[in-house]
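Z., the sequence and structure:
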Amino acid sequence: MRKSFFPAGTSLKHENTVVHVETNSTATPSQNVPLMTTATTCNTYYPQANSELSTPTTPGVTLGRKLEILKATETIVEALYSGNSDVYMKLCDPGITSFQEESYGNLVEGLDFHKFCFDNVHHSGKASKHHAVRCRVLNPCIHLMGDDHACIAYSCLVQYLDNSGVPSTCQSQETRLWQKRDGKWLCIHTHRSGTPFSTVLAKIRNPACQ
């Protein structure tokens, strides 16, 4: 029988698993999560204190864990698009598995595939003076699976300027599985579909790719 991670007597409701987007939220997650570069920013929408996530059906400890997952996701997405391989690798399990556009539907295991992208995509070409990237994690849905495992699904909207200074937008749909080890969350699996991030970076570095 499948084990339930919700308190006894609690019905499974949509609001118990979804982190709602608050477009007018005054929360400032950037104060808690260090930015990787000044050229790349990533916005994750946090619930206000009086949101449905603070109701008795979702204890404060559960809300706290969800916010931890949001912060970790924001940091890894920002590291990805800013080219900060050190931060990205530290947030990933060495045996991470992934499905993504660059792997053409194949399951990739380990960090070598990711490292190749960082070494050859981020470092190729010459960055433009117009270089700017803004990432938005939209409509995150988080499932907590015990104390040390979590799943987050979301859409990632990326705005960027190419070398000609022309603004463009692309999006992807992503799912990440996180595991907590020694008090630290590590990404153990990711499933990504949509515009490959390598394509976005190539357009930023080289306008001929447009």
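Confidence is low (pLDDT under 50) at residues 1-39, 46-56, 124-130, 206-210. The chain has one domain: 32-209.

Let me know what you think.
H.
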